[in-house]
Amino acid sequence: FCYKSFIFSYNLKKFISIIALVFALVMIFAVPASAFKPYQTYTYSIDGFALHSPDAYTPIRTVDSAYMGLEVPFDEPSDIVVDENDNVYLVDSKNGRIIVLDRYFKLKMEISTFINDQGVDDKFKNPNGVFVKNGVIYVCDTDNGRIVTFDTDGNFQRIIDEPESSLFDEGSAYMPVAVAVDDYGKLYVISISNYEGVIVMDYTGEFICFVGAQKVSLTAWEKIWRMFQTDEQRELSEANISTTYNNIAIDPDGFIYITTDGIDEDDQQGAINGKDKSGDFAPV
C-alpha cells in the first residue's frame, strides 16, 4: 500500500511539474494577439519583383454602421477625411449624405438636406467627395454639378457652381468628385468628365487654370496610321485625350497628391522598370 501510494504521489508531482513547465513556456513565448498580422507588407524592386518590407500599419479595429450608431446603414462610401480635431467625415454616396463622426467613431451628425441661398429646400445628388479646411466642409455634389459648403456644425454656407472659361471643352459636363483646398483658399477640383487636368479656382469659385494634365502619347501604329489619314478621317477618328483623375489630397506643406485608375497596368510597370523620364506617365 505504501509503495503504491508513493508511486501515485510521484506521478502526481511529475504531472504537476509538466503542467507548470508548459505554462511557463507559454508565458515566455506567447505573442500578444495585437502583434499578429493578417498580411505581409511588400513593395516592388526595380525589376518588378515583390519584396517584403516593414509594416506601414496594422489594423486595430473595424468600424461599421452599428458601431457608429447609424439608423440607416451607410451604402457606397466614396470618400473620407479627418480634420484637425480628429472628427471623421464620410461620404455616403448612395444615401446622399455626409456622415460626421467624433474621434471615437461615434455619430455626431448627418448632412443630407439643407435650405440653400434661395431659401429653398435642397439636397445632395450622388455626392462623392469631401474636404475640411479652416472650419469649412466642402462637399462635391457630383450629379448636381456643384460644390456645397457648410460650417462644422452642419449649417449651410454657400454653393460654388460650375466655373466658366473658354478653356473647357464645349459640351463637357461638370461633375466634381473630389476637392482639396490650400492655405490660400484656392480650390483644386477633380471632375470625372474633364481631361484637361485639375481645375483650379479661387475661393469665390472663379476659374484660374488647369494643372497636372497627363501627357498624351500615340503608339507607333497610331503615328503611322495618321500619316495616311486625310484631315476628315483624323477628325472622325477617336480623339486622343489625357488620363482623367479620381481623387486628390493636399498635405500640410501644400504638396498635392492625385490618384488615377486610367493608366494601363502594363504601361505603369514598363515605366517603372525602364526608369522612364519622358513624362508620358507622370507620377500622380
Walk me through what this model shows.
The protein has 5 helices and 18 strands. The longest helix is centred in the first third of the chain and has 28 residues, at 2-29. A 4-stranded antiparallel beta sheet has the order 3-4-5-6, with no helix packed on it. Strands 9-10-11-12 form a 4-stranded antiparallel beta sheet, with no helix packed on it. 19% of the residues lie in helices and 29% in strands.
Summarize the entry for a quick read.
This protein is α+β, with helices and mostly antiparallel strands and 284 residues long. It has helices at residues 2-29, 65-68, 220-227, 231-236, 265-273; strands spanning 42-44, 50-52, 77-82, 88-92, 97-101, 107-111, 113-115, 121-123, 129-133, 136-141, 146-151, 156-160, 176-181, 187-191, 198-201, 207-211, 247-250, 256-259. It contains five helices and 18 strands.
Tell me the structural class.
alpha+beta
Low-confidence regions: 1-8, 28-35
- CA-based shape: globular
Tally of alpha and pi helices? 5
Into which percentage range does the β-strand content fall? 25-35%
Number of strands: 18
